[in-house]
């Protein structure tokens, strides 16, 4: 969900940029050099996943998968999603420059919140329970993102209020689809490689490889 | 299966910018990044529709100077998320003002239309200039340039990894989709589709982690000690000065016109 340049008020743009900078700084702290390849390749995976089109009714939507990104990357989701949005703006013409901070917060803050809320559940003993928590996280992330976008629009002016509300409700089907897909992805990852969800939560001294 | 994916396919981050020397390519990437940011800040502060149209035309001229492919670049420029398009369409009905026409009893106003056009012009002018100036930089050089502009090292590494692996992983994604298709998978509105796509993404994540372990191993073998040398043969030259003066002149003119109108 990319807001474009010129739509938001200066106060919202500056607020978004400050929040994004803080989030990125915190995210980089949890990213030692050893984890850099893992963070980079996983970020690239989410970049590719966001290009996947999923049929929904007569049309199709592209995935966002920020919930899953949060579950896998933790706080590192902030810098990862920021770079993804930067590349999308520069090379694909999605989004914009002055809104980069707001867009980063809209996508990455829900990812980190989902990580904080659902990481316990993801680590549960049974993959099915983990999948349910994954589904909750996947749906919740889209709900929060739609809420953040709506908030950014509503803070800019009353004339956007109707659009803000519609944006939120139009994303309910997307929430359901993202929840189902995230649940399936978590289920498979838990069965095949449970340590996927621990890559960015264990202490750096434990390392990735020996 | 190579012929299905296609070997001559352009890479994901390939904007079609020419390798050879163009007027824009002569300019240092750092100058171009700073110019694009300055342009965005100036254009966002403008309000007059005629001046904004001028800014959009300026962006078009830059695109031609960078020799980006016209058709695909313009298509990328006008593409917006559907919710933004929807928001712009709603604006005439939500902004109070003089009535233009009514739809089902809801009055549309000129002021609302004006605001929608203003946002559309700003968004397109800025994104076009960004693609012309920065999108035509080779991605790895973009990383070096951002590093020299004091972007944190870790963010630059992340950018470099993404630039490299987005393409590798997209090839992998396409290969997996071909494999699914060969087994009769057809996407539709059903649980099976969502579950299969979820497994696909889960599998890609598992493979990504395993790939990153091999990458880290290979990097350590070559003496990785926490930093990647960022070579930069970037140097400001005379053409940067002329470009900065000319670009600054255009921005000053845009601001002055806004002030005079």
Mind explaining what this structure looks like?
- The complex is a heterodimer of chains A (about 210) and B (about 260).
- By secondary structure, chain A is mainly α.
- Chain A has helices at about 10-30, 35-50, 65-75, 75-90, 100-120, 125-155, 160-170, 170-190, and strands at about 55, 60.
- Chain A has a single domain (about 10-200), classed as Orthogonal Bundle (Arp2/3 complex 21 kDa subunit ARPC3).
- Chain A is built from 8 helices and 2 strands.
- In chain A, strands 1-2 form a two-stranded antiparallel sheet.
- The radius of gyration of chain A is 17 Å and the shape is globular.
- Chain B is mainly alpha-helical.
- Classes of the chains: A mainly alpha (about 210), B mainly alpha (about 260).
- Chain A: It comes from Methyloceanibacter methanicus.
- Chain A: It is found in: Cell membrane.
- Chain A: Its main location: membrane.
- Chain A: InterPro entries: CbiM/NikMN (IPR002751).
Question: Could you give the topology of this structure?
Answer:
The complex is a heterodimer of chains A (210) and B (261).
Chain A: H1 10-29, H2 36-49, E1 53-56, E2 59-62, H3 66-73, H4 77-92, H5 100-122, H6 127-156, H7 161-170, H8 172-192
Antiparallel strand pairs in A: 1-2
Chain B: H1 2-5, H2 29-44, H3 49-65, H4 70-78, H5 82-94, E1 99-103, E2 106-109, H6 110-133, H7 139-148, H8 153-182, H9 191-221, H10 238-260
Helix pairs in contact in B: 2-6, 2-10, 3-6, 4-6, 5-6, 7-8
Subcellular location (chain A): Cell membrane
Protein name (chain A): Cobalamin biosynthesis protein CbiM
Transmembrane segments (chain A): 12-31, 37-56, 68-91, 97-118, 130-156, 168-189
